[in-house]
Amino acid sequence: MPSLGKSLIILGLVIAAVGALFTFAGRFPWLGRLPGDIYVKKENFTFYFPLATSIIISLLLSLILWLFRR
């Protein structure tokens, strides 16, 4: 079982990475508009679900966490 200190460091790095993603998201206009993202617009209704973007972010975070566990 990892120590509390190591867990807090990893949590801090994840929070910093998410913060950096939000800070620099405007520089990546394709982020959130990938093929596979679901976008439905009707007269008074808009539904948007970034499916492909969510999968890409999940894969990247899984890779990063896997590298930290090695």
Write the layout of secondary structure elements.
Layout: H1 4-24, E1 38-41, E2 46-49, H2 51-69
Antiparallel strand pairs: 1-2
3D architecture notes:
- With 70 residues, the protein is mainly α.
- The chain has one domain.
- Helices cover 57% and strands 11% of the residues.
- The protein has 2 helices and 2 strands, in the order H-E-E-H.
- It has helices spanning 4-24, 51-69; strands at 38-41, 46-49.
- It has a two-stranded antiparallel sheet with strand order 1-2.
- It is elongated and about 55 Å long.
- The chain starts with a helix and ends with a helix.
- The mean pLDDT is 83.
- The chain crosses the membrane at residues 7-25, 45-68.
- InterPro entries: DUF2905.
- This is DUF2905 domain-containing protein.
- It comes from Citrifermentans bemidjiense (strain ATCC BAA-1014 / DSM 16622 / JCM 12645 / Bem).
Strand content: 5-15%
Spatial gap, N to C terminus: 14 Å
What count of helical segments does DSSP give? 2
Q: Taking strands numbered 1, 2, ... along the chain, how are they ordered across the largest sheet?
A: 1-2
Q: Please, what is the average pLDDT?
A: 83
Transmembrane segments: 7-25, 45-68
InterPro entries: DUF2905
Organism: Citrifermentans bemidjiense (strain ATCC BAA-1014 / DSM 16622 / JCM 12645 / Bem)
Keywords: Membrane, Transmembrane, Transmembrane helix
